[in-house]
Amino acid sequence: MFQGLPSQSSYSYAVSLASVFLIAIAVEWLSHARLIKIGTNNVLAGLQQTAIYAIRVTLAFLVMLAVMSFDTGVLLAAVAGYSIGFLIFGSQVFRKPNIEPYQDSIDLPPLNC
Fold first, then answer.
1. What are phi and psi of 72, to 5 degrees?
2. Closest residue by Cα to residue 106 from 31, 30, 42, 26
3. I need a labelling partner for 89 at 20 to 30 A (CA). Which of 28, 29, 73, 102 fits?
4. Is the pLDDT of residue 22 over 70?
């Protein structure tokens, strides 16, 4: 359907799949990370939140555009990236016990399922 899509036997196809996978993980990290610390000026914190949001949405749209190539490998790489990213950054698996979550930041709460 798309002439620019690398063939499935090429090195560039593997790089494309790895890129989609890593971008999906980055989207999950940005969705769950607390990057703005308490004590930050409200205006500065708002600008930082907006910049982080814009980056997250841009990366998510890039993954969406890659999936719209209708290539099964790209779809699987995106789903795997989002899943691994959620496992690492969004699930309870790697959270430290007995620590109040989000106590040291004023960032927006992570996206809820």
1. -65, -40
2. 42
3. 73
4. yes
pLDDT, tens digit, for every residue of 51-71? 999 999 999 999 999 999 889
Residue 76, token pair as written in the block? 């699987």
Task: For residue 113, count CB atoms less than 10 angstroms from its CB and return exposed for 0-12, middle for 13-18, buried for 19 or more.
Answer: exposed
Q: 110 is written with which tokens?
A: 């992570």
Q: Dihedrals φ, ψ of 100, to 5°?
A: -65, 120
Give the pTM.
0.78
Q: How far apart are CA 24 and CA 39, in angstroms?
A: 31
AA identity, residue 92 = Q
Contact indicator for 1, 67 with CB cutoff of 8 Å: no
CA–CA dist 35, 52 (Å, integer): 9
Query: What are 85's two structure tokens?
Result: 């990213």
At residue 39, the pLDDT reads 84
Cα–Cα distance measured from residue 33 to residue 107, given in angstroms and rounded to the nearest whole number: 9
Rounded-to-integer distance, Cα 10 and Cα 22, Å: 19
